[in-house]
Amino acid sequence: MSAPAAVTLEAIGKRFGDGPGAVQALTGIDLTVGAGEFVSLIGPSGCGKSTLLRIVANLIEPTEGSVQVNGKPARRARLDQDYGIAFQQAGLLEWRTVQGNVELPLALHGLDRGARRAQALELLDLVGLADFAGHRPSQLSGGMQQRVAIARALARRPALLLMDEPFGALDEMTRERMQSELIRICAETGAAVVFVTHSIPEAVFLSQRVVVMSPRPGRITHVVDIPLTARDEDTREAEEFFGAITEVREALRGRTKVEDEP
Amino acid sequence: MRTGAVWGGRIFKGIWPPLIFGVAFIALWQWFVDARNVKPYVLPKPSAIWEQLREHHSTILSAAWTTGQNALVGLAIGLVVGVLAALLAARLRALDDALTPLAAAMAAIPIVALTPIFNTMFASTSSTPRRLVVAIYVFFPIFVNTLRGLRQIDPVHAELMRSYAASPWTTTKVVRLPGALPFFFTGLKIASSGAVIAAIVSEYFGGLQKGLGPAITSAAAASAYPRAWALVTAAIALGLAFYIVAVLAERLAMPWQRPEGAVS
User: Which of B137, B166, B179, B221 has minimal CB crowding within 10 Å?
Assistant: First the structure.
């Protein structure tokens, strides 16, 4: 038997508020993310992609439909710490050291000091910050802080990583470097990723599938497969990369050049 | 240590502007009183005040010690009660609804009017009324600021703690308490020098004839104006000492608030 799907969404709907003032944020969302698969959610502001991510994380409850994470109900998965999460803001605790921040989820899960320390240093090594374990977050650049946040999200070795525009506040150069880092980290950890982004090249570079959403109410309009042969620095200048970008862009504009509408 | 030296250097640098201003101000004062021949009961010369400070230093010190003790004990009581009340109010909505108006009412108490009442409640040789007045004065800024700090939480931290399935108490311990420290210390800094003022004011309304308040009254009654001014100077120094201790405590408690040059 193969591993259960990382995420299974069935007929998800989300309404905020009641009565005439209610807003239908999401409707009829069906999506499956396989184990180890990298899927991006892309769409204009207000299409509900961040809301959808929070529903997967069980930070908010859907109004309709069912959510399964690692074959469990989303709430159970959250209580079991089956996923790691990273946001646009690194959200580090400024009074803790870099290492202390990475240790936080481990400490909350009752790991003893020695194990925590060893694991945190290993994770910091994974994100290339082994030399900064004792620094304060305020001493790090934005990109470094975000790497600490990723290390923290990976702390419990989750099978699923949820990321809400984690590189959105970074400059273009740092952003591209972080994307390559993320590809490497995912290859090393084997984690599935649900990645929310505004950037078409970012979504294409990182993902095996790009889920295109449209607003009012938020729904999935296209799912674009990205069959890149490689994902390295040369990819960014490759013909197939630009081809895939065009395909996603067309899908975002609502042209039905893409056949595999859900 | 390098960082220690940098920190020391910053304090040293920060000391110059107020020091130069203070010295210039005192020189100007001295010159003005001399040049215009101002009578000592209107405004004594700084040099005369200094002489009085030296001459009566032991009585001034003991008066300041008495007042300082009252201020310190009152501050400690108000601080502990204020922080505990803020912790409870932050956790329990119902208690918050009850405590916040009560705290506002306490802030509106004219402490001057309260002193005579406390004086009749306790023995006339007791320092307790004064300490209670200080505690009441201190309670409000500590309570309000700490509660505000405990309430505000970075939305990212809130979502993160929820994703960790952390209990409310864990969230308080890990995120809210450290996050409330800057607010708490804002309250403490306001309360610290205020505690000394409250202690002195409370001394004016009967009870023990000890402390800076009665000493100032009796010096003024004896037309010993430079001595009265010397005592006022001591009161200022005491208030400043309380404030400085609060600032140092803040720095010790929050070393992360001291940026030491970011690496990038």
Answer: B221
Contacts of A87 in chain B (CB under 8 A): 156, 159-160
Identity of the residue in A54, A79, A132 whose CB atom sits nearest the CB atom of B165: A79
CATH number of the domain to which A57 belongs: 3.40.50.300
Residue B165 sits at the chain A interface (C-beta within 8 Å): yes
**Structural tokens at position A133:** 């374990």
Report yes or no: B201 and B111 within 8 Å, Cβ to Cβ: yes
CATH code for the domain of B202 = 1.10.3720.10
Do A102 and A144 share a domain, yes or no?
Answer: yes
Residue among B157, B165, B174 minimizing CB distance to A78: B165
- The confidence score (pLDDT) of residue B264 equals 38
pTM of the complete model beyond 0.80: no
Residues A164 and A245 in one domain: yes
pLDDT band at B7 (very low <50, low <70, confident <90, very high): low
**Residue B45 pLDDT exceeds 80:** yes
| Number of domains within chain B | 1
Average pLDDT over residues A95-103: 91
Q: Return the biggest CA–CA distance within chain B.
A: 75
Interface check A135 vs B, CB under 8 A: yes
Contact A138 B165 (CB under 8 A): no
Decide if A203 is inside a domain.
Answer: yes
Using the Cα atoms of residue B25, residue B31, residue B32 and residue B38 in order, give the sign of their dihedral.
Answer: positive
Same domain, A209 and A123: no
Q: Is the dihedral of CA A246, A251, A252, A255 positive or negative?
A: positive
Domain of B88 in residue numbering reads as 59-256
Q: How much is the mean pLDDT over chain B?
A: 84
- Interface predicted TM-score (ipTM): 0.84
